[in-house]
Protein 1
Amino acid sequence: MIAIIDYSMGNLRSVEKAFQKIGANVVITKDHDIIKRADKIVLPGVGAFKEGMENLKQFGLIALLNEQVLQNKKFFLGICLGMQLIGSRSYEVEETPGLNWIKGDVVKFNSGKLKVPHVGWNNIRFIKPNVLFKNIPDQTDFYFVHSYYFESGTQGATTVTDYGIDFVSSVNKDNIFGCQFHPEKSQKFGLEILKNFANLNR
Amino acid sequence: MLKHRLIPCVLLKDWQLVKSIQFDSFRTIGHPTATVRVYNARNVDELIVLDIDASLKNEQINTEIISDMADECFMPLTIGGGIEDIDGIYKVLNAGADKISINSKAIEDQSFIRQSSRIFGSQCIVCSIDVKKVNGQYRVFNKKKGVLDIDPLILAKEYETMGAGEILLTSVDNEGTQKGYDLELLRLFKDQLQIPVIINGGMGKPHHGTEAIKNGADALAAAYIFHFSQYTPAQIKEELYQSNIPVRIPV
């Protein structure tokens, strides 16, 4: 069973529906016992970093997620804000520490000529092969909507995307995966990514 | 590279999707969920659905039908029509929408944009502006109140300041006419906003899309061309692609 973490940060139902479409067994929950029983964890999320961390804290989820993901090594997928939250800290609104599972800061696009938020379909570019992108061609477009991005450096990055700069559009470290774009809103290839995640086996 | 989006923008009326002509007469497109399924298969980039029963008859927005559509919609879904308060936004988002579109309420009370964008994020708030040309000047049009003495560009800038994430700009004069987008209107807006402008109203041929992008549109909304012409979304994108406009070509 895949637990989609309910921490009041939007679009959970879209993620649930997309997993259901590919036949995965998913539950939207913040119940600690259910999360402990789950074999995979998804942290979606749309909204502000600070509020996201505060909500995780309020529901007692930070220690639980650390335990389940870092110690028990459950497969984890962070989507959009959910990927940013695994970084070291964000400068959105004010400096806020993140889960710090993959080192790096979450910073704002330096707008210049380009419009912020970065919203719409943009292509990813593989920088190393990754199981999450099985059956997905290089340069495939996915749906993005965000004003901040995760500067994880080269250590965790699996793809980059060009929006004035090459920013990190997905990460992976051991059992931890993240994508800045929304697979649940990216039609066929988005569903393929969720399928690849659902099929991961230890 | 970020792609320019092609977005069907349709109306919900009496449990059917319809298309209007200059905001007046309506033609039926089809059953909502079946239509969404077709759009999804044809790889359009997003979908906008405006509930006109809710906005014109002051009814509650039809969350049941939105939920059914969202079940088939694996692309961003924007819902609008008759949203009056924060609770209304919660209902629509919980039914499966990704963004909401506000029109009348934003004209009445701009602080609602600030309030809603703070709660749901700017990316969630699309502000819709309907425009009509009167005596050679562009003015904001409201479905209930008619032409208002408001400059649409000034209003759009105010919306941006208040936290809007995108502007859906509809030319009432061109809407449903297939004569092309209002390029003069677009030129007024070009490079004036930091947030994306989705132009709506008038696409009858694929090259109308090319013209609109070259005149400053970030994204193209349309309905007539998808349902009452021989052109498919793929053909429209092919035309854009051939004109060196970055679009998402389905693999």
Protein 2
Amino acid sequence: MNFSYWMELIMSGVVTGACYALIGAGLSLIWGTLKMVNLAHGEFYMLGAYILWVSLTVGNMPLLIAIPIAAVSVVVIAALLHMATIRPLLRKPGWDMSPWILTLGIQILLQNIALQVWGELYQNVPYFWNAIFKPGNLFTISGQRIIILFGTFAVILLLMFIIKKTKLGRAIIATSQDGEFATMMGINTKRVYLVTYGISAMLAAIAGVLMCPVYSVNPWMGTTVQTKGLVVCILGGLGSVEGAIIAGIVMGIVESLTVSVVGSAWRDVAAYLLLIIILYVRPEGLFGRKREG
Amino acid sequence: MLELRSINSFYGDVQILFDVSLEIKEGEIVTILGSNGAGKTSVIKSICNLLPIGSGEIYYEGQRIDKIPPYKLINLGISLVPEGRRLFPDMSVYDNLRLGGYPLKDKKTLSDNLEWVMELFPRLKERSKQLAGTLSGGEQQMCAIARGLMIRPRMIIFDEPSLGLAPVIVDQIFEILTQIVHENHSTILLVEQNAQTALEISDRGYVLENGHIVLEGASKELLESPEIQKAYLGL
């Protein structure tokens, strides 16, 4: 156990954490604007991975075409699902319960469609970049992990730019703070709901695309990241995108350290323990806003 | 300019507005009086289509508006300053104001209008970086009014601007309201519980009781009407 060992552990945690961050940020965005939990979020991650795999193996497409195809297809699927199922229920009586049942249904449906179409075999996607690096001889890192880190970083920067600097971002923030009144400012909130759902689905799809060479592609791959994404989302403070990103990376590092120090069986224990401890100290999450009363 | 023709509105199965008809001419200040639960805010929600009407028609400058989605109203030059301010609490004053100008396409108009509302409310200029949720009640109301003015609306709807404010601040706010009308020839629909002040600054008034219009007339006449004096002015 020397310095490079620990560096590698931390880097591996950051990579997993980047994936949690993308999932958690999407869940947080959806929570912030639509005020619902999207239980089908992990399925967008799974679909992103599958569509990439199909484009690469069946379609024989180059990577730089297959990646956008995967991301865009998932956005289209999510947008259609949103218009067909979420929009009709939005803000109708029973909205406190209906998204849970609806998105759980979508989760089961999409998983089983994937199972029917692609079968239960675990599929593999080759590394995007087959290289090993030893920065300053301190630790080793694979090309794929570097791509995951930079890919996530770029996507998060772009997301932050959209939220903080564009008119669409202002519309998203206004809608999340007061949806009804945002319409009176001339904001088409129905469209904001659709666009945020689409953006969130794209974040999940990109996570799936980036991570699938490291793990494998299978119909159930979305379930674990879904749960971890929710944990990260609560940890960071519901509705806080920055919170979810930071919490995601923290969670990845904690898991990675736990696996090597106490054993992989303790990975989820550590994750939920972290959640319990932080909620005990800060019930509103790391970056959540305190609610009065 | 704005005309409601016998509208009926419902919350679920419960009818809350019965055959409400009213008219506001260009350049007028019209006030709707009524006690709590009389249906004043429902009239406004019906106009804005936040509460779709069951029957009846609403016209704005001859155009029927009761079927158009709420977010398009602001493009017609109608602006709402809602009950309870409804500021975006986690945004700065500046961002709230800028959001008021959301439909403006032109950056120059946006910055001109920002400057204009900051001149009207110098206090907001001092606090422009502060989060809207941390302002005092009076400042929040000023911010809400300023936000409503950002598109230089031709018609402004004020829902209970005096609610929960100290009398001195109420006077200030009403003073600014009248000033705005005179400077911009805006048309104003004012919904108020504070009958005395509202009637003093308005041209005409309607009295709403249990979802019915029970009285209407020039504000001067209403101020002198025994029923109003008894029910709303406490005389």
